[in-house]
Amino acid sequence: MGLQLYLDLLSQPCRAVYIFAKKNGIPFELRTVDLLKGQHYSDDFAQVNPLRKVPALKDGDFTLAESVAILLYLTRKYETPDHWYPQDLQARARVDEYLAWQHTALRTSCTRTMWQKMLFPVFLGQRVPPETLASTLAELDRCLQLLEDKFLKDQDFLSGPHISVADLVAITELMHPVSAGCDIFKNRPKLAAWRKRVEAAVGEDLFQEAHAVIMKAKDLPPADTAMKERLKPLAQLLLQ
After folding, report:
1. Quick one: 76 and 156 in the same domain?
2. How many Å apart are CA 82 and CA 76, to the nearest integer?
3. Would the pTM of this model clear 0.90, i.e. be above it?
4. Domain span at residue 228?
5. Residue 125, φ and ψ in degrees, nearest 5
6. Pair 24, 70 in one domain
7. Separation CA 229–CA 163 (nearest Å)
8. How many structural domains are present in the chain?
9. Do 93 and 61 share a structural domain?
């Protein structure tokens, strides 16, 4: 049995793994796990990932959870070009630094922005207090400034002159608020230029393919009662 990737392209880490595998010609079987239908809570999926989260990887009898771990596993197993996860000690450390920071910073603010600005009112039919959304957008703006000042600086990419897995993780995060109608690149020419470089390095067709689901999320039909109940714990978390 070959490599299997359990993904839902509604999820930003899943998009990063998908783009990386496709761009590097890594053969895999896509096993779609519909998050909004709660398929990640099924007993069958728990056999692959007891954490009940996507992405997940199955390579023969070996299973692996967590997007960063999966990305790094793929770089090593398939010996992908060095720029994705450089051998140079300090260049690799820069990639690691970003990957360690983004979990509780950019990812959190991007996820909250998309849910509060789009999925709560459109999908769940739930009003978001204006002060809550304002606070979330302020935090997103702070994280974007840090992304520019601390990580991108005056470089072409986050870790230097070439694209790395850090850039994939970052751009897929940023497309969450973009899908909700936030023009986060409008007054950030440095970040906008970086986005164009990332898209060019990945390939425009692949980039659009990976983001087709999230860019259509605004057209999701309203959630039914059962789905609203299933999503209640997540909704409470994302409104804090």
Report:
1. no
2. 10
3. yes
4. 89-239
5. 65, 35
6. yes
7. 41
8. 2
9. no
**Same domain (yes/no): 197, 215:** yes
Same domain for 107 and 67?
A: no
pLDDT tens across the length of the chain (240 residues): 699 999 999 999 999 999 999 999 999 999 999 998 889 999 999 999 999 999 999 999 999 999 999 999 999 999 999 999 999 999 999 999 999 999 889 999 999 999 999 999 999 999 999 999 999 999 999 999 999 999 999 999 999 999 999 999 999 999 999 999 999 999 999 999 999 999 999 999 999 999 999 999 999 999 989 888 888 888 888 987
Q: Would you state the structure tokens that stand for residue 115, as one six-digit string?
A: 């849910």
Q: Tell me, yes or no, whether 235 and 130 share the same domain.
A: yes
Tell me which of 17, 48, 80 is where a domain ends.
Answer: 80
172, amino acid identity? T
Q: Which domain CATH number covers 33?
A: 3.40.30.10
